[in-house]
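User: Quick sanity check before I run a bigger batch. Here is a single chain. Can you write out its predicted 3D structure?
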Amino acid sequence: MIGLGSGAQMIQAATLVGVVLLEAVVLYLGYGALSNVVGEPLVERIRTL
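Assistant: Done. Predicted structure follows.
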């Protein structure tokens, strides 16, 4: 069976997982917004070369 660590260690682990997930969401949304803003003009620029 899995042994339970101290409460403080469990809170630290849960906090770390939460921070990593939040960072992933922020990066996903940020790159999505950036590709929407920059992507289309960049593709058009490349097509006209």
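The helical segments are 7-47.

User: Great, the batch can go ahead then.
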